[in-house]
């Protein structure tokens, strides 16, 4: 009995793994690897300055960049509180026939000091990661 | 000065925990009375010392003492009082200190309420508890010290993350920690049993109250966390299968299995080695959860500080405890006498199936949670294992559990009569079918999967209550006699019924909201009305106002049904003064068990407002179910036979009870 349940569970896990996991890609990956149209992926990078266009009924378009390649993103819905131009985000969705990334979920960082790890990695890989020093912190006081 | 006293008390507690780790266990092995006797006073002393440390840190927050680094980084003098208090654990150092405080509180409770335990067991348990508190006190003192001062105190602090400035922070972490950490006692009891090399049904009776307390708090903590995320994050999700959530859910699953296997052990003296294993596993998963959440391997609102040294430290603690406890298990468990065998069709057989499915489901969740981390560490490839994976693996494993629950409740111990139980459940099955069809019809009925989900949920609900009906038999003996019997039913019957009823209610909420929730994103102009899920929602106006430490833009919405005003809703967008961080606050309207949820977005160029409106049918049942489950756990705790300080029951009463339970009421 235990064997049957475990085997069934293992089967379910393998099936789900095959079908339900989502790979993370940077704009460069998407351009280089030719991600198939319609496949679900997570796209990470910075929101390009000046690229955000608000349309009707909460429709938004913007461009995600890793400073090497860019991908146009379309999204309908409320953007997270900390979504801003120049900030790191992760979007989940798929590339449509026109090469536009149709996002159904957009995640931004949780607080001021947070850049999604995947985004940081993607930027490091493309050689555009800068370690910003938090000025207010350093100027305010010295650690004991 | 007070800060230094707190720091000093913490170091003293560390020393006390070191002594408690060594001598009681040594004494237990060598039957040395004097060495065993040091355990209880040390456990109490540790609690007092850590309490002093915690009070000192709280004092620093209350007085906004910005000479303390921890207070600077997480507080602000304008912060409302409640968040000054809860802010104590709204950061890495403080939350670990709270963890330790609860850990030593449990140690002190064991030393106070275990006078009737055999001295050896008591000393070894407290000794093992000493190992855990030693490990975590070393962590606090050497790498997560909340009492560090700065040379030049600034005038103001940097304020607490706005997302944490909510009543949820005052409730969720303490509840969850009592649950997490409570399982440490169960772990210590298991280690003690292995060290002493003896275990019997009485052990299960002593351990069960601690399992129950931990389980009740963990249930409440998880439910509270879920509700908090639901109203605070602004996207109306109540469970994301986020690794951080899974971290608390895995010990809950194995803890639930443990709760049931301990009953088998107590009643039938069977499943001993398995129960010990579950006890070790549950706390190991609690430690894993602490590692995942506190180490910074995951980036989430829970990971306050990303510091690799700390991550390695917790990983070290995790490996020592998991590896160590499994080694002790492998070495000593063969010495334990196995209990009796039993027929597959019986109460204990059903409980074994429950355990099998719950632990398998835990394994699936474990795999999905850790696979991305391991894959990234090994190959550098980044993947996300999201809700679809968990729904597809966890869901099917839960269906048999839910289907079996009513049978398990009615099957007799030792040898059950499956056909007899099926006949007795016939009426409950009929009620299930009727309720299922009514609800499916009411919801608009084309969704077959949802209808099946309703059916399974109602089956659990009616099945849970059926045991009571089956025992008092109102249709046979008449209502007055049935009421008399109802009052006389053992508490455990109500505990089981409520525990299972809660599961059914939660399942019903989950199925309904998953199948029938709606999300509408609109751009609305002031005065405009839109219809959502049978309600008319009018956007009236927005205005700006000041809060204690933020400014906010509030929108007013009027909710109408059939032309009648039923509520006004005020979602808002805040910007916190100190940090400049924005924060969206959703507005909720509860109607029966369903909710309307409004979250506001940005203003559009033409003066409109982007608005997200959710209709969440029966969603509150998810959390009400958790409350009902917890209530069941509490009632089980009140059972006299389980009283923590109860005199050691004679062997006879346990068998008598087993016999009584095996003969279904008349």
Automatic annotation (TrEMBL), chain B:
Keywords for this protein: Cell inner membrane, Cell membrane, Cytochrome c-type biogenesis, Membrane, Transmembrane, Transmembrane helix
Transmembrane segments: 6-29, 41-62, 96-114, 126-148, 177-197, 209-229, 273-292, 312-331, 352-374, 394-413, 425-442, 448-469, 489-516, 618-638
Xref: Pfam families: CcmF_C, Cytochrom_C_asm
Cytochrome c assembly protein domain residues: 89-295
A Gene Ontology molecular function term of the record: heme binding
GO BP: cytochrome complex assembly
Protein origin, superkingdom: Bacteria
Domain Cytochrome c-type biogenesis protein CcmF C-terminal residue range list: 315-640
Location within or outside the cell: Cell inner membrane
InterPro entries listed in its UniProt record: CcmF_C, Cyt_c_assembly, Cyt_c_biogenesis, Cyt_c_biogenesis_CcmF
Membrane topology classification: Multi-pass membrane protein
GO cellular-component term (any): plasma membrane
The family this protein is said to belong to: Belongs to the CcmF/CycK/Ccl1/NrfE/CcsA family.
NCBIfam families xrefs: nrfE (TIGR00353), PRK10369.1 (NF007691)
Protein's job: Required for the biogenesis of c-type cytochromes. Possible subunit of a heme lyase.
Protein's recorded name: C-type cytochrome biogenesis protein CcmF
């Amino acid at each position: 009995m235990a064997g049957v349940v475990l085997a069934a569970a293992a089967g379910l896990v393998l099936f789900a793994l095959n079908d339900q996991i989502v790979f993370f890609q940077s704009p460069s990956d998407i351009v280089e690897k030719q991600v198939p149209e319609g496949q679900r992926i997570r796209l990470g990078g910075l929101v390009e300055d000046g690229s955000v266009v608000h349309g009707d009924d909460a429709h938004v378009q913007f461009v995600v960049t890793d400073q090497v390649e860019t991908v146009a993103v379309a999204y309908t819905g409320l953007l997270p509180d900390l979504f801003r131009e120049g900030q790191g985000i992760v979007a989940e969705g798929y590339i449509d026939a026109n090469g536009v990334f149709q996002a159904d979920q957009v995640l931004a960082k949780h607080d001021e000091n947070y850049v999604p790890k995947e985004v940081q990695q993607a930027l490091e890989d493309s050689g555009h990661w800068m370690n910003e020093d938090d000025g207010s912190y350093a100027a305010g006081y010295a650690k004991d | 000065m007070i800060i230094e006293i707190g720091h000093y008390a913490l170091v003293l507690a560390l020393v006390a925990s070191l002594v408690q780790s060594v001598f009681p266990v040594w004494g237990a092995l060598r039957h040395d009375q004097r060495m065993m006797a040091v355990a209880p006073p040390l456990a109490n002393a540790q609690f007092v010392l850590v309490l002093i440390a915690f009070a000192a840190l709280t004092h620093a927050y209350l007085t906004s003492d910005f000479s303390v680094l921890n207070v600077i980084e997480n507080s602000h003098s304008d912060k409302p009082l409640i968040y000054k208090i809860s802010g104590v654990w709204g950061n890495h150092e403080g939350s670990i200190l709270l963890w330790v405080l609860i850990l030593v509180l449990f140690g002190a409770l064991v030393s106070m309420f275990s006078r009737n335990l055999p001295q050896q067991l008591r000393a070894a348990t407290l000794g093992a508890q000493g190992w855990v508190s030693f490990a975590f006190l070393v962590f606090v003192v050497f790498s997560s010290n909340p009492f560090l001062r700065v040379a030049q105190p600034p005038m103001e602090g940097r304020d607490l993350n706005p997302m944490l400035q909510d009543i949820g922070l005052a409730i969720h972490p303490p509840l969850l920690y009592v649950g997490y950490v409570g399982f440490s006692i169960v772990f210590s009891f298991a280690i003690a049993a292995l060290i002493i090399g003896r275990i019997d049904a009485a052990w299960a009776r002593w351990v069960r109250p601690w399992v129950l307390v931990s389980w009740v708090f963990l249930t409440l903590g998880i439910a509270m966390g879920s509700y908090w995320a639901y109203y605070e994050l602004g996207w109306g999700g109540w469970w994301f299968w986020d690794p951080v959530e899974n971290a608390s859910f895995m010990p809950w699953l194995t803890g639930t299995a443990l709760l049931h296997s301990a009953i088998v052990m107590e009643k039938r003296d069977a499943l001993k080695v398995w129960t010990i294993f579950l006890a070790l596993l549950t706390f190991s998963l609690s430690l894993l959860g602490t590692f995942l959440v506190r180490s910074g391997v995951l980036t989430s609102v829970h990971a306050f500080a990303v510091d690799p040294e700390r991550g390695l430290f917790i990983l070290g603690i995790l490996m020592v405890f998991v590896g160590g406890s499994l080694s002790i298990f492998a070495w000593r468990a063969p010495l334990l006498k196995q209990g009796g065998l039993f027929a597959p069709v019986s109460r204990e057989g059903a409980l074994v199936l429950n355990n099998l499915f719950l632990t398998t489901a835990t394994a699936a969740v474990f795999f999905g949670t850790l696979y991305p981390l391991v894959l990234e560490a090994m190959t550098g490839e980044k993947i996300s294992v999201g809700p679809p994976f968990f729904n597809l693996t966890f869901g099917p494993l839960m269906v048999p559990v839910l289907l079996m629950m009513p049978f398990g409740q009615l099957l007799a111990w030792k040898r059950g009569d499956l056909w007899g139980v099926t006949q007795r459940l016939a009426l409950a099955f009929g009620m299930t079918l009727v309720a299922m069809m009514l609800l499916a019809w009411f919801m608009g009925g084309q969704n077959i999967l949802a209808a099946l989900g309703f059916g399974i949920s109602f089956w659990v609900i009616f099945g849970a209550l059926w045991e009571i009906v089956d025992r008092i038999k109102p249709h046979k003996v008449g209502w007055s006699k049935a009421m008399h019997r109802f009052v006389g039913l053992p508490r455990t019957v109500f505990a089981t019924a409520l525990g299972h009823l809660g599961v059914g209610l939660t399942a019903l909420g989950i199925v309904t909201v998953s199948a029938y929730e709606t999300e509408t994103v609109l751009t609305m102009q002031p005065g405009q009305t839109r219809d959502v899920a049978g309600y008319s929602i009018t956007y009236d106006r927005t205005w700006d106002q000041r809060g204690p430490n933020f400014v906010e833009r509030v929108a007013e919405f009027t909710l109408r049904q059939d032309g009648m005003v039923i509520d006004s809703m005020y979602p808002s967008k805040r910007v916190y003064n100190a940090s400049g961080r924005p924060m969206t606050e959703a507005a909720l309207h509860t109607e029966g068990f369903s909710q309307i949820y409004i979250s506001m977005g940005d203003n559009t160029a033409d003066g409109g407002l982007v608005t997200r409106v959710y209709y969440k049918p029966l969603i509150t049942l998810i959390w009400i179910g958790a409350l009902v489950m917890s209530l069941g756990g509490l009632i089980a705790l009140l059972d006299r036979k389980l009283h923590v300080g109860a005199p050691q029951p004679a062997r006879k009463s346990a068998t008598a009870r087993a016999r009584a339970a095996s003969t279904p009421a008349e």
